[in-house]
Design brief:
mainly alpha
Length: 135
């Protein structure tokens, strides 16, 4: 059973980014399911690899669109993207160096990302971009 289910409360009202945010939710659910089955340690590397691919693609797309339309919060949003990316890279480095099991740390990070970044910061660009004709 999935930990998180997509609902309108997560929507930023930009279709492309909602679809990409659903991918992040899938990564969270994948890790959660593995942890429940006692396999979190085996899955966390794949989740971290997926997160790195996700951040590269998703953040570049968000940054490009915000910059192209002159979103006033662009610089602060980009700084937050950079910090999230650094955190993912640090988690992956710790995992590859064999530090303590990271599944709970990664799960907590992902849930915080979903609630603080997507439901907070990302919600700010939705109405702005919608006003520029982006849906």
């Amino acid at each position: 059973m999935a930990l998180l289910t997509w609902s309108d409360k997560y929507s930023v009202k930009v279709r492309q980014f909602d679809e990409e945010h659903k991918q992040l939710m899938n990564l969270i659910n994948q890790l959660h399911d593995a942890m429940k089955a006692g396999q979190g340690k085996q899955v966390v590397g794949d989740v971290l690899d997926g997160l790195i691919r996700y951040t590269q693609k998703h953040f570049a797309a968000e940054d490009r669109l915000m910059k192209a339309h002159g979103f006033p919060g662009y610089e602060n949003h980009k700084k937050e993207h950079n910090q999230l990316t650094l955190t993912v890279l640090e988690l992956q480095k710790g995992f590859s160096e064999g530090s303590a099991p990271l599944s709970q740390t990664v799960m907590t990070f992902l849930k915080d990302w979903l609630t603080n970044h997507i439901q907070g910061v990302d919600k700010e660009y939705g109405p702005f971009l919608n006003g520029k004709g982006v849906t």
